[in-house]
Design brief:
alpha+beta, five-stranded mixed beta sheet, four-stranded antiparallel beta sheet, 14 helices, globular, DNA-binding
Length: 418
DNA sequence: TCTGGGGTCCTAGGACCC
DNA sequence: TCTGGGGTCCTAGGACCC
């Protein structure tokens, strides 16, 4: 039988920050979202204080002060680099892995004789090579492996490793786990299940498949099957090409004027096109959206406009032109805007383009050369070549008050050994 | 005062066609 | 006056994930 392992980094962002700040060992550490708005990661010590992922900073500020919590703005460049090192280490333990997220990796451990011992070796090696503590859960399906991992984190006496290949162990754990902690059961469905009297993972596992399908969806049916050792979610070793690119931000302060908003949209559009080029993709469709804050007591407005290019492109100018027109369609004076962004869809690899029947194919060679040149210059000079509609001064840009140095990706920030 | 950003998949309902 | 049934495609919104 197939065995899935899920390796998950413990408090990943907080652990990364601690690699370079050994003085923070066993001290509470918190990492904030973009804009320093809310908590996205916290060390065990913070969890013990009752801080939850998603808590806005202003609501927990008193705890931060009272317990001298060290706070970091998120430093995604640093986290991505450390993540790559962790994943690289894991790849030496199995030929079949799926990098599931920045801090999680599913692996096949078929044919392994002593699973628990092997898992401990994985743990020790990752810690030694990267400084990041991980937990390992093993089971016949991904959903059960997630559950095993959950237990490995929750119960310290497991030493961070839980082998859930045995059915009776599965049952005993499922009895203890609240239904909302099952992978695939979120807040909404968790509530609905509880209203039906389904409170534990075991009760969910014992539900009638037909009822689940009828009252919920095929997605939850798969979850139930997976809890019963029937593997429905395969390992995805080669990542599918992405379906969309989103570039959006909440603003540091509310936006009320059209000019700065137009420039913000141009900035997102440029970033989006850059992402396409970096991954050798093109897109056909762009959506532009602006919206007020759903948390504010002022009048609300939220609008999206979508437009299509005749031919898929990754040329910033094509999208800037279209995005400008779309923006004019949705802009409405008199609101306090909190967030805006663009979404690129109908994406294809740059070498597999669908040509238009009606329009002669556009020769993109010149455009490609220009964009390549711009990207190259911007890579080495930190964004010096801009388009007319972008603006140099980005006063709406993020608050990142507590940013750590880019220890591993900027020469100036290399840590110095004393 | 202050509530992230980036993704995926599924479903329901409307438009339209025969 | 009467106003079907079956199908496709598209979109908005819901739900989940990290």
């Amino acid at each position: 039988m197939t065995t899935f392992a899920l390796v998950d980094c413990n408090s990943f962002y907080a652990s990364v920050e601690r690699i370079f700040r050994p003085d923070l060992k066993n001290k509470p550490v918190l990492v904030l979202s973009n804009n320093d708005a809310c908590c996205v990661a916290k060390s065990r010590e913070c969890r013990a204080l009752g801080i939850k992922t998603g808590d806005p900073l202003f609501k927990i500020q008193h705890l931060v002060n009272a317990h001298k919590i060290t706070v970091f703005s998120s430093n995604y460049t640093l986290y991505a680099d450390i993540s790559a090192r962790v994943m690289h280490t894991l790849e030496s333990f199995s030929p079949r892995v799926e990098i599931y997220s920045i801090d999680e990796c599913f692996m096949h451990l078929d044919g392994c004789k002593d699973l628990e011992q092997y898992a401990r070796k994985i743990r020790d090696t990752v810690l030694q090579y990267t400084g990041i503590p991980v937990s390992v859960g093993m089971a016949p399906t991904k959903t059960l492996a997630k559950l095993a991992n959950h237990a490995a984190k929750k119960y310290p006496q497991t030493g961070g490793v839980v082998d859930l290949t045995n059915s009776s162990r599965q049952k005993r754990l499922c009895e203890l786990v609240p239904v909302k902690d099952v992978w695939g059961v979120g807040r909404r469905i968790g509530k609905r299940l509880e209203n039906m009297g389904i409170r534990t993972a075991l009760q969910l596992a014992q539900m009638d498949l037909k009822v689940v399908r009828q009252k919920f969806s095929i997605v939850l049916e798969r979850t139930v099957r997976e809890l019963n050792e029937e593997s429905c979610i395969e390992l995805e070793e080669t990542p599918a090409t992405r379906r969309q690119v989103i570039c959006s931000r909440s603003f540091g302060s509310k936006m009320t004027e059209q000019g700065p908003m137009r420039e913000a949209i141009a900035e997102f559009t440029t970033r989006g096109a850059e992402k396409l080029r970096k991954e050798k993709l093109r897109a056909c469709v762009i959506s532009v959206f602006i919206r007020t804050s759903p948390h504010a007591n002022r009048s609300q407005y939220s609008k999206t406009a979508t437009g299509r290019l005749i031919q898929a492109s990754s040329d910033s100018r094509d999208f800037l032109h279209l995005a400008g027109k779309l923006f004019e369609q949705i802009w409405k004076e008199g609101y306090h805007y909190a967030k805006a962004g663009i979404i690129l869809t109908e994406i294809c690899p740059e070498n597999q383009m669908q040509l238009s029947l009606l329009e002669p194919p556009k020769d993109s060679a010149a455009s490609d050369r220009l964009m390549q040149t711009i990207d190259k210059i911007n890579q080495t000079t930190n964004g010096k070549v801009q388009f007319g509609s972008q603006r140099e001064e980005q006063d709406w840009f993020m608050n990142r008050t507590h940013l750590s140095p880019s220890y591993t990706t900027r020469w100036e920030d290399l840590p110095v050994a004393k």
